[in-house]
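help with this record:
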Amino acid sequence: MSLPISGDVPELLLRESSASSIEKTNEGKDGFVEEKIDITEASSDVDTDSEVKIIRKAEDVAIEILSTEDHPELPVFTFRAMFLGTGLSAFGAVLATIYTFKPQNASVSQLFCLIIAYILGTLMAAIIPSHGYWKYLNPGPFNIKEHTIIVIMASTASTVAVAMEVIAALNLFYDIRLNGAVAIFQIFASQMIGYGIAGVLRSLLVYPTYAFYPTYISVVNLLQSLHYGGVLNQKRRKYFWIVFAAIFCWEWIPQYPFPLLTAISVVCLIDNGRSIFVRNLFGGGSSNEGIGLLSFSTSWTLITQGYPLVWPLQTQVNSYIGMAIGYVVLTVCYYWNVFNGRDLVFMSTALFGGNGSTYNQSAILTPDNQLDPTKLAEVGLPRFSTTYAISQMCYNFSLGAAIVHVLLWYWGDLKNAFGQMNFLQNSHDIDDPHYQEMKKYREVPQWWYIALFVVSIGVGIGCSYTTGTALIPWWSIILFTVISFFLAICLGFIMATTGFSISVKYAIQILAAFIHPGNPVAVMYVNLYGNSTAYQTLYMLQDLKLGQYTKLPPRTTFAAQMAGSIIGSIFNYAMMISIVDNNRAVLQNPVGTRIWSGWIIQSYNSASVAMGALGEELFTYGKPYYMLAFAIFVGLAFPVPFWLIHRYAKPGSNIAKCAAYINTPIIALYAGYLPYSVNGQWWSCVVIGFASQWWARTYRPAWFKKYNYLTSAALDGGSQVIMFILSFAVFGASNTAVPFPYWWGNPENLSVDRCALTDD
């Protein structure tokens, strides 16, 4: 079906093609089928762009780019898969936890795990004997299904659970120390609630073609290129490693000796740090420096945050529209003193006191972490920076718009799935070719997911009551889990069709502030069920789709996700408690050190105080930040005009097409997306995004189909491997930082883009 959110390339940009493809099966040694080759692509050197069909709809990349090839005879649960899956899960969970407490904003990526797994799996297949009883350890070449199991396990374990971060915040700032077993069960249960929801939503957000998860196309394309044989894939593998090596050799230059290349701004180079206005508007090279207007980057580590090679053109265009609005709104609101923040810094997520200093949140709480009105009268209310308040408001606009957007554009799909409880059935009438190939495998019964969901809620409620007094009452856990279920449907549609993720953190915390007024601990703990559950659902849905694309048996995918979650929960907690116990004072310090920082954990604590202890004083009608809460309801109206225009305008007219092209949730969120971290990369994303998803897709369709997503995988993989090495070699992840000597491209008294004095 054709859906307006799917990111179709506008028809006026497309050229017709009548080329057809014929598939042929190649047999390799030992009778194993190696590859299903598209004859029109087998001799890739003779393909011309005029002979290749242009991909019109964004979701069609899953059919045109990815092979539906499957080899049911391949071994799946092998020694290699279990050994490497367990080892990389433990390694990823430990490393991701360490990164959580580092000043650098880093993570363990799925592509990093994929590449390491491929190297180690291929090595094991080469060195372990395969004859006699050894065949149980080495059943043959390292295959795509083993590889996918390892990737799913490792990426699941490497996704740091919000529960771990909340447990660390309770330990650090409220001296609430959960029993080790209770903490591990709490982490696991919060993840499994999301997994249960994901399983229930499979027929809606996994099986159909429109649910294609754009950011996963490059992952699957790389897996297929590494494991399927034939002349074309040999060329793709060679191309991948060349691009991988090139970015590996390049990326260390802008990241270490020449950081000016991470954010090149002609305006900043001319100003050289003299004007604060120039810094606020054009600066983007350092954290919280500015919003990066006309700033370009050559660092793929930053550029890839905009997914310019994989996000559909519609997603990117709407995000750029949102940013354009943000440049104006953020700047004007700050200089017009909106939210009374003109005397504060331009960008910051911290809480400030009346005199502009850091807010002393501990001074307004009683010993049992409740609001003390007498102390509040003495200290006064906290303030947000203007840009941070605007950003929170835009995120809430986006959430409201997302709910109505999905209801308007996807009502038919929702009705089909839930109208007669069709989602409870294991058999579905879906014409997606990848789904059709999966029908040969035994599906996971729906009751498995429902049972997992119910048991996990029970475990979560039990864990909440283990401290003597409930962190939050049982009814609140159920309430926010139900809310999260409905949010997961809306967010899942947006993620599955655009690749875009919408944050619900602020909205959930504001809602919790009204339900648990004056209770900061409860507001923070609600994140496990209102925020974490929705995001765990999205992660699980993506991995279920990955299993469908690679033809991994569904029950194997289920087992891999369960195993990754169990290993991740254990190592998340063990590493977290070790770091917290040994670096307590540093992690509580607002600044931290070059080696350790509690900035991620502190954000939960700050939100719990501002929204939990002071929700009534700050967010009710007539109070300083009431619009942040009511923005959700205002956002409900955003998609309606565009849907009405599309619905009642002449079918096929330009105005109807433009109305369908507008995605208000993305625009609203990106209007407030900039007041965070580094912003020097976005204009490079614009150039690369249009070059890939418009020019190459329209005028070089042969190259686009064969190499666009593989290029993305190679660039991501190479840059992430070198960043991993640099993190431990020179950036302080090994407790010893080695700064590069100062020079013009790495200034001592200026930010890296030479736009701000470092003592500003």
In short: The first strand starts at residue 23 and ends at 27.
